[in-house]
Amino acid sequence: MAPTHTHMNRSPTDVLQEVYGYSEFRGNQADIIDHTRAGNDALVLMPTGGGKSLCYQIPALLMPGLGIVISPLIALMRDQVRALDQLGVRAAFLNSSLSRSDQDEVIARIQRGDLDLLYVAPERILQDDTLAALGRSAVCLIAIDEAHCVSSWGHDFRKDYLQLNRLKAAFPGIPRIALTATANTRTRADIVTRLELSNPTEFVDGFDRPNICYAVQPKTDARGQLLKFLDDHRQESGIVYCLSRKSVEATAEWLEIRGFDALPYHAGLDARTRTEHQERFLRDEAVVIVATIAFGMGIDKPDVRFVAHLDLPKSVEAYYQETGRAGRDGQPADAWMVYGLQDVVRLSRMVAESPADDAHKRVERSKLDALLGWCEVTTCRRRPLLAYFGESRDEDCGNCDNCLRPPVTWDGTEAAQKALSCVYRTGQRFGAGHVIDVLRGQARAKVFEFGHDQLSTFGIGKGFSDVRWRSIFRQLVVHGYLDVDHNRYGALRLTGSSRALLRGEMTLALREDADKPKARSVRTRATVKVEDEPLMEALRDERLEIAEEHGVPPYVVFHDAALLDMIRLRPSVLQEMLEVSGVGQSKLEKYGQAFLDVLNRFDRTEPEASSG
């Protein structure tokens, strides 16, 4: 028989300190843990990196029996189990990546009572043999991670989540806790209904990620802009998102040539390459992954310093989720995006052509409109982003492009009238490119072919460059004065709202897009003091060596935040190491001495260095 629970008579704070090495709980963590231990259901909303996993891991360690965690992400399960292993917690996972004999071994451990936590895929837990094995063991709680997957209003709906309401009958009276980082009010209600949670308390910890700096730029030369942005991030890990597999491959190759350690990741690569690239991203310090949105679900790497979007995501939720992969360690990070009129046309077409029914298309369309509106705001970005998730904020954030460099606006009424008139005169049958040629009086074959050189609007926009007109059209579409006709390959049409503008009954302020936008990173960097850089380097080297020896990514040994804390506190004996954030009993025993030796080696050499 396996050793019984070692933590059952401890308090949550004892476990937090001894196992995880943290001195206090954040946000609602302590309340959620107490609520779950009392046998109640809960819906937990916590921003990415806010410490969701502690909300079910600690109750599972404190309650007699097995804690079950349902997760759709094989990579994340493996990651979490590796990390728990390092903390001395008895954890395992059960999913399709295990061989038959490994699966049998996990089932045997469940039946011996030799596990505190079991991570399992949604389709796996509902199999009869799994339910039978779990039915014979004492289950103390069920956590459903990424719970937004159960809602068709969510941005990541998964059919196998719909069956999870069956767990209520299979494990009567066992507390269930549903967790997500992204759900607006409608999705939250849907989660409660579909999972059949019993009278759950909602714990909403706020959506703000204050350490992330948000920036959006008009797309003029996407790759050139990306390169400028990445120049500030040469020694850092990050993710670049593209819409298509082809552009993922091409961008990764292009960055490689320019000296970046860039790897492609998309569903079209074979499984071995995908795993290899993911492992390198987790293991190495400065790898840039160029990916479709298939990447990142289940990536728990804490020191991702930037997320860049070369193409527009489909919704505010998707954007929030993807950018939320940056800065999970709480250190400053960048969320940077470029977008242009082409993105708007392409995504609108994708919504129009999707096989979904009309009601669902309307939802998709309104989600896209909300994101486009957010891209064009000229005030603080954080306020409308949080408002979308139902959270109000009174003051500007001071950590987004609009706060740090307030955009200039101009009276675009007359330019907008010219643009709308030209769309109307050319028959509302053409995309922006052709209408701009007519406005600028360009002698193009297509212009002559349709006789558009004879129109009253031919050449009335000579005063503006092509880039400037593109900016005007993009804003007219986003503000709802024009829309895109998908039956005519993205032709622009006037909407009802354009009448008041054409009649001069209103004015329109437009954002001034710089012709050559500055792509520099706007955030302030979390840096080590110059004099501490050699020590940080040495601590990182030590961490890498230990990580390779144990076959885990470096951050599973210690986060950067822990190394920075070691430099700040300079512990000189083992017991003092426990003051460092992230050093618990298990890690102290495993690695404490090795890191202490590095610190002591530096403390001894310092006086000599300064006297020489």
Q: How would you sum up this structure, described in words?
A:
α8 (166-170) links the parallel β5 and β6. The termini are far apart. It is built from 27 helices and 17 strands. The strands form 4 sheets. Strands 3-4-2-5-6-1-7 form a 7-stranded parallel sheet, with helices on both faces. A 6-stranded parallel sheet has the order 8-13-12-9-11-10, with helices on both faces. Strands 14-17 form a two-stranded antiparallel sheet. α2 (29-37) packs parallel to α3 and α23 (533-550) packs antiparallel against α27 (585-611). The chain is an alpha/beta fold and 612 residues long. The chain folds into 4 domains: 12-204, P-loop containing nucleotide triphosphate hydrolases (Rossmann fold), CATH 3.40.50; 212-404, 3-Layer(aba) Sandwich (Rossmann fold); 409-511, Winged helix-like DNA-binding domain superfamily/Winged helix DNA-binding domain (Arc Repressor Mutant, subunit A), CATH 1.10.10.10; 530-611, DNA polymerase, domain 1, CATH 1.10.150.80. The chain is 45% helix and 13% strand.
Overview features:
single chain, 612 residues, alpha/beta, Rossmann fold, Arc Repressor Mutant, subunit A, seven-stranded parallel beta sheet, six-stranded parallel beta sheet, disordered C terminus
Topology:
Layout: H1 12-20, H2 29-37, E1 42-45, H3 52-62, E2 66-70, H4 74-86, E3 91-94, H5 100-112, E4 117-120, H6 122-125, H7 128-135, E5 139-144, H8 166-170, E6 176-180, H9 185-195, E7 201-204, E8 212-218, H10 222-230, E9 237-241, H11 245-257, E10 261-265, H12 271-283, E11 287-291, E12 304-309, H13 316-323, E13 333-339, H14 341-353, H15 358-375, H16 382-388, H17 401-404, E14 409-411, H18 413-425, H19 432-439, H20 445-449, H21 466-478, E15 482-485, E16 491-494, H22 498-502, E17 509-511, H23 533-550, H24 554-557, H25 560-569, H26 574-577, H27 585-611
Parallel strand pairs: 1-6, 1-7, 2-4, 2-5, 3-4, 5-6, 8-13, 9-11, 9-12, 10-11, 12-13
Antiparallel strand pairs: 14-17, 15-16
Helix pairs in contact: 2-3, 14-15, 18-19, 19-21, 23-25, 23-27
